Structure prediction request, 278 residues.
Amino acid sequence: MSPDQLFVLAALLIGLAVGSFLNVVIHRLPRMMEADWRAQCEELDGKASDGNRPYNLFVPASHCPACRTPLRIRDNLPLISYLRLGGKCAACGARISPRYPIVEALTAVLSTWIAFHFGLGAQGLLALVFVWALIALTFIDADTTLLPDSVTLPLLWLGLLANTVGTFAPLRDAVIGAVAGYLILWSIYWLFKLLTGKEGMGYGDFKLLAALGAWFGWKMLLPIILLSSVVGAVVGIVLMILARRGKDIPIPFGPYLAAAGFIALLYGHELVVRFVPV
Prediction:
């Protein structure tokens, strides 16, 4: 097998393992943020810490949400264990959410796609990290309407660092893209708030678009905004019709930005030529 073929195979296997870890991130990171906010509020109120046990991405070990039984290694194999157990806990028989194998399979498929598209090299390795971050942000935002700074900001800095040698865009375009990406949505946010008195989006959306600008440069911002807005509008209308959701129920914008960012990663040049012929 050639190095590129080995890279594709490795991306598939590593993607399954990373998908399993992303499930932990998606589930625990919002709870860690909430616990941190609560601790800060208690500190400001002069209250002592209640001495809760550590809770982070590694502690406690993975366990069944229903019976709290720690998972054995053979019951925690990405995708395989879910299929072998029929989607149930080995200890108590409780149903396991299909979200877990979906995230694992999605991560494996997209990782393989990226490895095949870019091949072995700096672009391919960085693109894998980029896609893994987008997957985590997509599901966290869908669940909580939050885009954690602990993911969006490192993604922004990594994009700028990668482009110091022009990996995806010239550094000048990347810096302008990061600043413009933030300011575009920041301006829309305040314009909407001044006109309606309501908040149309969160600050996490500003930071995610800034990160996408840092990765792909300012020329990609217009295609990304157009793609994410169109897809978001279509999905929002479908949800209102099928699920009978009211128009005032917030719909997270992060997943659509993430989807547009993934398209930009693969087909950015074609999009720039079509939308920004400069």
Observations:
- The mean pLDDT is 88.
- The first helix runs from residue 3 to 44.
